[in-house]
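Record 1 of the preview.
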Amino acid sequence: METALCTGSPLPRKMKALIPEVSVSCSGGFPLPCYSMDLQKYFTEKRAAVDQALDAVIAPESEYPASIHKAMRYCLFAGGKRLRPILALAAAEAVGGDGRTILREACALELIHTYSLVHDDLPAMDNDDYRRGVPTTHTVFGEALAILAGDALLTEAFKLLAGGGGSGQHAAPQLLTIIELLAEACSSRGLIGGQVVDLESEGKAIDASVLDYIHSHKTGKLIIASVELGARLAGGSPDQVECLRSYGAAIGLAFQIADDILDVTGSSAVLGKKTGSDQKQQKATWPALCGLKEARRRQRALCEEAVAGLAAFDEKADPLRFIARYIIERDS
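->
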């Protein structure tokens, strides 16, 4: 029995590229619910809420000094799936909470993610010219302002997490836990550590354990933190939080493997960035290490592991189940 994930009304081409229509099978051992879910509508609604909240917390372009605020807004609103804040909202719902109560904190995830992309694109790092379908921040505003824009987004994220201008819905001890969680996720033991090993591995023969370290830290740590943030702030039990952490670890690794595959097989027009850059820079990737067939097998196994790990949750976790499949079916 085949069921369509996405059955909503037509969206603009750019949005369709972000949220592809895919079909999922209820057979073949893949543990997905046997009904149709309008994931496209879910993404669209959550993304609109996140964008509205982000717009409210970032200074307008007219505020002095205008150059930095223009650069911040340029990279933040250039597009993007908003996957990490959406995962946080979905995790909050999965444990019985209301995603709207954690919206500001979820926005911090997007600020951190965008900062990492701005810095990752710099000439000293990956030296990319396009991101999210537009010229990268440093190619438009210069390297110095791009660095500062990334720094400002990261700083703004922790201001949000500390309750700056917030509604006061979460207790201080809760917020301190979340601040520590996200600081760890983007530290030298997390995202930055993964970036360092990624850079140091260029042009070298590495084994699967090193590659898993790169992917699980550079990408996975912030995705784990996304679902954990949502679950903790929505009052999830320790067991629920741990289950969602395992889910996040699996989809985080699957997400990066999917990115590696798309760099080989994807379209630059759909991805919004140049393809083939991993091979050009001799990056460590799963397709380079073991071939496309094995990379696809690995990401599917991780996706199945993630969904199976949600067995203790009811239908409120279905968005997370379908997002896991979307991660490996996407074309951008």
